[in-house]
């Protein structure tokens, strides 16, 4: 059994504009990983310049790529996996969530739980990923604190525990009170712009508070806090780690309020790497052999090279540079000579990685999303989903001599998880499926820029797809009768293409022996 160093591997889930980028910058700043706030964006821009297809994200002003950021504090290494916030890229985001042990949910104090936050939350719930809530932008006018807390509790069916409480909001914002430690966080400096000062009080009755906070805000704080302490569940670390309770922190990422408390909470309560679902049995992080799985593949980061980076989450063992790992089920052992490690500031550790860490493995297309890598090739991690596409399009090739290139391109992108591809049993019109519109633009632009294939996307006679399974006789019978709607995915799995969600229901009722799945685990 290996002793593993302390890790917190987490992601931030939020709706666009809630403040994820700002919070990320401040977490890195407070964690000492970078010395200038703003560097995250700057680095993002440099990365964007790298590849042609990324022009789309420039045009749309959104971030399509995700990456890994690492910071360290008090002996704990925090791995923050960036998830693209735009809803069109949710599939990629969902997969990233399979590689974390916990999540921070950022919500805008004025807007509450928004659609994208909710979707991402549901994915976390599927996997019982514990969530810490950060209510952002308290320096602006927002909703009543109780309203926010009750909305989280009602919409997400979670117990909530307020850990901190804003003292006033918007123009009246005076700071944040920590209900557990009785510390008051105050702005400091002539402009009173940023959190700078911490006053330890003996509790809400402490007379010090009268000298610091305006009478109106103080009266309200005392009243609200009393009600809150009586009305909401007490913090229970186990309930949080089971995904049943979310501790709620208030703050302002922009003004740096509450960021420190958030890191503290991650350190104190968020789970370190634990056993992950796998066959034949779950893999404990203390297992000696190195195991991990690929949750993301990014291809052609440099348009001049057909290189890919497979992002692997390490699940057990101590990874060392040069080590040989075997992808379960296919391929020979791969010697990983030049892994990309993400903790640049810790040079002495750069040759080793531990459970919870992410390693980037350069390869030429051998590694795919969902692959398990291990020393003995005797395990397979389960639960990395493929989602039923919500938009299907027929790919029409402008130059018929490029069929081979098109197939390669579609296979490559399916492999990366950018789009899905379906090869119908009848006819030669390949169909691609995506979860969001933006993926279509990415596909066309990459076909042209990277594969020199000019193609157009036409409406497909289908609206959605389901992976089918069942015993051989039932499948054969179903396939024969519905041949015109049958296709194979990139891995050769049978897929039923349906004209509508209604048709899926109808067909499922008529063929009770066949299972129709909207997600496919790899
Ligand atoms: P996102 O990644 O979740 O999409 O959000 P991002 O951090 O980019 O923040 C969205 C906007 O909200 C930005 O303003 C940002 O400055 C602002 N913001 C983030 N946190 C806070 C906060 O705690 N308080 C206040 N008042 N504003 C906050 P922007 O004007 O759209 O962009 P920028 O030009 O400032 O970058």
What does this entry look like structurally?
There is one protein chain. The two termini are 28 Å apart. This protein is 28% helix and 29% strand. The radius of gyration is 25 Å and the shape is globular. It folds into three domains: 4-65 and 101-269, Rossmann fold; 278-381, Rossmann fold (3-Layer(aba) Sandwich), CATH 3.40.50.300; 385-521, Alpha-Beta Plaits (2-Layer Sandwich), CATH 3.30.70. Strand 25 and strand 26 form a beta hairpin. The strands form seven sheets. Strands 27-24-26-25-29-30-28-31 form an eight-stranded antiparallel sheet. With 522 residues, it is an alpha+beta fold. The chain contains 14 helices and 32 strands. Bound molecules: guanosine-5',3'-tetraphosphate (G4P). Guanosine-5',3'-tetraphosphate is lined by residues 14, 16-22, 85, 136-137, 139-140, 252-254. The site of guanosine-5',3'-tetraphosphate has 16 residues, from helix 1. Residues 5-274 form the Tr-type G domain. It comes from Stakelama tenebrarum. This is Peptide chain release factor 3. GO terms for molecular function: GTP binding; GTPase activity; guanosine tetraphosphate binding; translation release factor activity, codon nonspecific; translation release factor activity, codon specific. Belongs to the TRAFAC class translation factor GTPase superfamily. Classic translation factor GTPase family. PrfC subfamily.
Task: Give the topology.
Blueprint: E1 7-14, H1 20-30, H2 39-49, H3 55-60, E2 68-73, E3 76-81, H4 90-97, E4 102-108, H5 115-126, E5 131-136, H6 145-156, E6 159-162, E7 164-167, E8 175-178, E9 183-188, E10 194-200, H7 208-212, H8 215-231, H9 237-241, E11 245-250, H10 259-269, E12 278-279, E13 291-299, E14 308-316, E15 319-320, E16 324-327, E17 334-335, E18 340-341, E19 352-353, E20 358-363, E21 372-374, E22 380-381, E23 385-387, E24 391-397, H11 403-416, E25 420-424, E26 431-434, H12 437-451, E27 455-459, E28 464-469, H13 472-481, E29 486-489, E30 494-498, H14 501-510, E31 515-517, E32 519-521
Parallel strand pairs: 1-3, 1-4, 4-5, 5-11, 6-11
Antiparallel strand pairs: 2-3, 7-8, 8-9, 9-10, 12-22, 13-14, 13-21, 14-20, 15-19, 16-17, 16-21, 18-20, 23-32, 24-26, 24-27, 25-26, 25-29, 28-30, 28-31, 29-30
The protein binds guanosine-5',3'-tetraphosphate.
The site of guanosine-5',3'-tetraphosphate has 16 residues, from α1.
Subcellular location: Cytoplasm
Pfam families: EF-G_D2, GTP_EFTU, RF3_C
Protein name: Peptide chain release factor 3
């Amino acid at each position: 059994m290996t002793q593993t160093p302390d890790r917190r591997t987490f992601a931030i889930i939020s709706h666009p504009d809630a403040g994820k980028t700002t919070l990320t910058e401040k977490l890195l700043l407070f964690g000492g990983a970078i010395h200038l706030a703003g560097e995250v964006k700057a680095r993002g821009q440099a990365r964007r310049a790298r590849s042609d297809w990324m022009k789309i994200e420039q045009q749309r002003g959104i971030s399509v790529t995700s990456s890994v950021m690492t910071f360290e504090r008090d002996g704990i290494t925090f791995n923050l996996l960036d998830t693209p916030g735009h809803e069109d890229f949710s599939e990629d985001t969902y997969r990233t969530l399979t590689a974390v042990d916990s999540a921070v949910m950022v919500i805008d104090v004025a807007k509450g739980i928004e659609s994208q936050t909710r979707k991402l939350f549901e994915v976390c719930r599927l996997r019982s990923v514990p969530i810490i809530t950060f209510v952002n932008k308290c320096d602006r006018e927002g909703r009543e604190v109780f309203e926010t807390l009750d909305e989280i509790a009602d919409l997400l069916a979670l117990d909530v525990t307020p850990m901190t409480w804003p003292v006033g909001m918007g123009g009246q914002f005076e700071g944040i009170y920590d209900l557990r430690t009785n510390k008051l966080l105050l702005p400091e400096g002539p402009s009173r712009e940023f959190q700078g000062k911490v006053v330890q009080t003996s509790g809400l009755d402490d007379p010090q508070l009268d000298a610091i906070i305006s009478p109106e805000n103080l009266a309200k704080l005392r009243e609200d806090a009393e009600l809150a302490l009586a009305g909401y569940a007490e913090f229970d670390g186990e309930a949080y780690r089971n995904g049943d309770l979310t501790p709620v922190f208030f703050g302002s990422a922009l003004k740096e309020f509450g960021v420190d408390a958030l890191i503290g909470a991650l350190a104190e309560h968020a789970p370190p790497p634990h056993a992950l679902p796998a066959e034949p049995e779950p893999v404990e992080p203390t297992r000696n052999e190195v195991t991990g799985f690929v949750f993301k593949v990014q291809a052609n980061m440099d348009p001049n090279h057909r290189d890919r980076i497979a992002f692997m989450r390490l699940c057990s063992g101590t990874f060392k540079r040069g080590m040989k790992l075997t992808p379960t089920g296919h391929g020979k052992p791969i010697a990983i000579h030049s892994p990309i490690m993400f903790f640049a500031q810790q040079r002495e550790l750069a040759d080793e990685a531990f459970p919870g860490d992410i390693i980037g493995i350069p390869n030429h297309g051998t590694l795919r999303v969902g692959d398990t890598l291990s020393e003995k090739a005797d395990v397979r991690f389960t639960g990395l989903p493929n989602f039923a596409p919500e938009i299907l399009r027929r790919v029409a090739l402008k130059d018929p001599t490029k069929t081979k290139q098109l197939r390669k391109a579609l296979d490559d992108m399916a492999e990366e998880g950018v789009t899905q591809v379906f090869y119908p049993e009848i006819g030669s019109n390949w169909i691609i499926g995506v979860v969001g519109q933006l993926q279509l633009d990415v596909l066309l632009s990459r076909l042209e820029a990277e594969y020199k294939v000019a193609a157009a996307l036409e409406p497909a006679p289908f609206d959605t797809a389901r992976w089918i399974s069942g015993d051989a006789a039932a499948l054969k019978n179903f396939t024969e009768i519905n041949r015109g709607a049958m296709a194979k995915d990139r891995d050769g799995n049978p897929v039923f293409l349906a004209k509508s969600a209604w048709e899926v229901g109808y067909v499922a009722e008529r063929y009770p022996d066949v299972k129709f799945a909207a997600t496919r685990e790899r």
